[in-house]
Amino acid sequence: MTACCKLRLRCIPWFFIALLLAATGPAQADDRARFQEPRPGSQDLRATVSAGFSPDGSAERLVLSTIAGARHSIQLAAYSFTASAVAKALIAAHKRGVNVRVLLDWKTNFEDDRRYARHAVNALLLAGVAVRSIDVYPIFHDKFMVIDGRSVQTGSYNYSVSAARYNAENVLVVRNDPAVAEAYAHHWETNWQLGRVVKPSP
Question: Which residue among 7, 130, 156, 157 is least enclosed by CB atoms within 10 Å?
Answer without folding.
Answer: 7
